Amino acid sequence: MELNENIFKTYDIRGVVGKELDPNISELIGKALGTLLIRQNLKKCVVGCDNRLSSPELSKALIDGLLSTGCDVVDVGLSITPIIHFLTCISKFDAGVVVTASHNPKEYNGFRIDYANAVSFYGKEIQKLRDMIITADFITGVGKYEQKDLSPLYQEYIKKKFNIEKKFRVVVDCGNGTSSFFAPVALRNIGCEVVDVYCRSDGNYPHGIPDPEDRVFMSEISKLVVENNADIGFAFDTDGDRFGVVDNKGVIYENDKLLLFFAKEILKENKNKEVVYDVKSSGILEQEIKSYGGRPKMIRTGHPFFIKEMVEGALLGGEYSGHMFFGKDYFGYDDGIYAACMLLTILDGTGKSLNDLMLAFPKLCHTSEVKIPCLDGEKEIIMTNFAKESKKFKDVSYIDGVRIKFSQTGWFLLRASNTSPYLSFRVEGKDQDEVSVLISEACSLLGQYKSLNLDLIKNAQVYVS
Fold this sequence. Notes:
Layout: E1 13-16, H1 23-38, E2 44-49, H2 55-67, E3 72-78, H3 81-90, E4 95-99, E5 108-115, H4 124-134, E6 145-147, H5 151-161, E7 169-173, H6 183-189, E8 193-197, H7 215-227, E9 232-236, E10 243-247, E11 252-253, H8 255-266, E12 274-278, H9 285-291, E13 295-299, H10 303-311, E14 316-318, E15 324-326, H11 336-350, H12 354-358, E16 365-367, E17 370-373, H13 376-389, E18 396-397, E19 402-405, E20 411-416, E21 422-429, H14 432-446, H15 455-458, E22 462-464
Helix pairs in contact: 1-2, 1-4
């Protein structure tokens, strides 16, 4: 298989197995990464993989490549991304790699790489790996290999960290992903009664790819929480770094509103600290976070940018897709299980339901993220042209894509995904009428791009929350 340079993304490496990614390419990636690490006097690497059917073979090939350069590798086998992050923070690992494609369809796979302390490996560094493979710029050596399950270290940490008095009845949906091995155990360890749903590992994902941002995926757990008279429901993605939440009445919450929930509580004793969120998030966050005594900051979508902010001292971060980052008393990386446990801790302290507590926050009309298929080469051209055209508007943000603000409550966003072939669109307004006007405006502006399926925008479901 020839190297497809398009698999080297901004945040990670991803491709279709059998077409863009195979064990040979995986081994070359291992050789390039190992060479780069050794040249920085870094040597010890921890490697884990998700439960996709292709992951074990790709993981083995990656490890072979790392070992061939002289890197020492601890292979932890099946793992979620937060556990690899955790191990780079509490153990003497110079780097960590997870073989995963997160929310991509099952035919995809890839590699997410971190340095020690969960510091992201991304951007130019990923492109450097590509260049090293093209030029066969590899060193040779003999590394040491060890296979060891280190997940008990993480589970014990979570168990000791959270002291919850109430025995919450919790519905957990892992969508047959890798989180199935870890999320139910962690929640039971802190005293929850767990009703597990699709928590049997199956790399075919017979019920669809687990994606907490997807309302269709969340709809089943919404029903089951009510049917089981549960206090709350949590859904986790394939590699465990994202979560979704349903309250006791079956209400599904977007992650930007959950960020407000966490910010309101955590800022009580941490005034004037920074809370970061991405460009897809609600316009109400800025004023609400200020009212809690925090300093709001909108940033680019993507975990490396959040990790950078957390390293620089941010208190809390939330990405609309379900990533939650905790700088207070944690390591600053995104962890769906930790976020779920933290939410339960707050509920335990208040004695109130999530539904009751969420009533305090303002409500607006909005769509979820609308994903418009667009080829990788074309989406950059469209975004460049759209950015030029948007300059006629008074209030436009170019932090990540184009976010046009039309009123105190009304805005829409168009940005290119850095992980998949689509453009991301989202709109918010004070009511259905304003949202409808903004959707019409967006479709008018985008109508010239004939390859875009604008019906996805026109027919997008509008929610109030």
